[in-house]
Specification:
Blueprint (H helix, E strand, L loop, with lengths): L1 H40 L4 H32 L1
Keywords: Coiled coil
Amino acid sequence: MAKRKDSAKKIDAERQRIEQIEIDLEQKFVELKDAEKKFSEQPKSKEFLEEVERIKDDEMKLKNAKYEKDEKIEGEDL
């Protein structure tokens, strides 16, 4: 009977540890989500933003050049 009580106590202790681990995991998950949100809300570095603007400008120049070429080709076809 004493062995059963000891076994039951050990099982209960392990269940409590598992429950605590689950609680800790949930807390860490919430902390991780909060950290991800804060990171995504941080302003990007100035160099990164300048690079994005440069790429957008280059893209616009390429679109304009393509449009001009398309117009020139259409004009020659007529």
